[in-house]
Every structure is written in structure tokens, then in C-alpha cells.
Amino acid sequence: MAVAALDFACHGVHAAGFHEVYAAESEEEDEDEPEKNSTYGLDSIVEGVFISQNTQTEVEKLGTSFEVVLVGQRMGRRELASELDFSDQGAREVEKLQDKSIGISEEQLPMSDEDYNTLLKIVEAEAGGEDMKGKILVANVIFNRVKSPQFPSTVTDVVWENVAGSPQFSPTADGRIYTVTVSEETREAVNRAIDGEDYSQGALFFVEEAYADKGNVAWFKKDLKFLFKYGVHDFYTYP
């Protein structure tokens, strides 16, 4: 009986000890549990995406807000859905944007690096002493020719066109196009003309009468329509 009681007491002590230790471990694990389950940085973004795909509730914040990553600004899911509205109103807005984009693209002329460099040089050679508007006007005339079916379709071909042995732009004949140094003002003028700044009234020709061949000046006045004079140049088009 004494031995049995002692054995029972020992088992009771061991059992109590075991449960006490286990309980302590459980409390420590519970305290650590949030630490193990928390997600940070990229993991939180991924978790946020998965959660947002599997719930209809609005996700307010998960670690580093995945709304910021996805749309560039803080926006709830319902707000984001409204931004992606493809109703009739949305379709009309898209159509307006497409029309505007097409209009812009049609106004812009395709130009290679060679075209751009040629344009800079011919504007400098023809209007290096003119003001900004005078320079833009020379670029305008070249663009008008590119758009016209009566002239070549690229800037380089327009500038270097030779009709029956007669060059269209004198700097290509006397070599000035090779020797000019393009100024920053000329570069700005060309860029502004490329962007659509146009004072030309559709002019296809210009001439500096004081230095032009008299026969050419007579042809201008007889066969072309005078538009206006600006700086040293007279501007003409076909009648």
C-alpha cells in the first residue's frame, strides 16, 4: 500500500509537472504566433493580391498597400472598378481619345535622323540671319512640300530635289549646306515647326529677290501666287 501510494504520488507529480511545462510552452508559442504569421514587403503585396481575388470585400490595407502598387495611387476596389467602367459613356470617352490620337498622328510627319539633320542645315543656310519666325517659315515651306503630291515625300528628297538640272534650294548648289553651323535658335525653330507651329499660309516657294536670279524672280511673279513677305523672303504658292 505504501509503495503504491508513493508510486501514485510520483506519477501525480510527473503529470502535474508535464502539464505545467506544456502550458508554459503553449503560452510562449501563442505570444510568438502573430510574429510568425505576419507578412511584410513583397510577401504582403502578393498576399494582398490573392486576398483581393478571393473576396468581394474592400481591402483597406495589407502591409505595403497593394492598391498603391497596382494603380499608382491609393484607391479602394470599388473606386478602381468605377475607373474601369466600360459602359456606353466609357466607350464614348475611348472613341474621343482615339479620334484625338489619330488627328495628332496625321499632323506629324515621319522623319528619319537624316531628314532631321538635313532640315536643320537647310534652315540655317537659308535663314541663318532671320529671326525665329523667319526660320520657322523656311521649315514650314519644306513640310508643305512633303505633304504635297507635287513634290517628293521626305524632307531629304525635297531639299535635294533637282528639276531639269535646277536645284530647288540654292545652298545645295553652292555648298553652303555643308559648311553651316546650326545655332540653338535654328534648332528650336525646327523643333517648333515639327510640333506644328506654322505661319506659311500653305506657301510652297520662297525667294530672296535681292540675290535671286532675275529669270527665276520673273517666273515667280508670272506663274505663282504671291502670299506675303517676311524678313528677306517673299513667299509664294501655286495659283
TrEMBL record:
<dbReference type="InterPro" id="IPR042047">
    <property type="entry name" value="SleB_dom1"/>
</dbReference>
<dbReference type="InterPro" id="IPR011105">
    <property type="entry name" value="Cell_wall_hydrolase_SleB"/>
</dbReference>
<dbReference type="GO" id="GO:0016787">
    <property type="term" value="F:hydrolase activity"/>
</dbReference>
<keyword id="KW-0378">Hydrolase</keyword>
<protein>
    <submittedName>
        <fullName>Cell wall hydrolase</fullName>
    </submittedName>
</protein>
<feature type="domain" description="Cell wall hydrolase SleB">
    <location>
        <begin position="129"/>
        <end position="236"/>
    </location>
</feature>
<dbReference type="Pfam" id="PF07486">
    <property type="entry name" value="Hydrolase_2"/>
</dbReference>
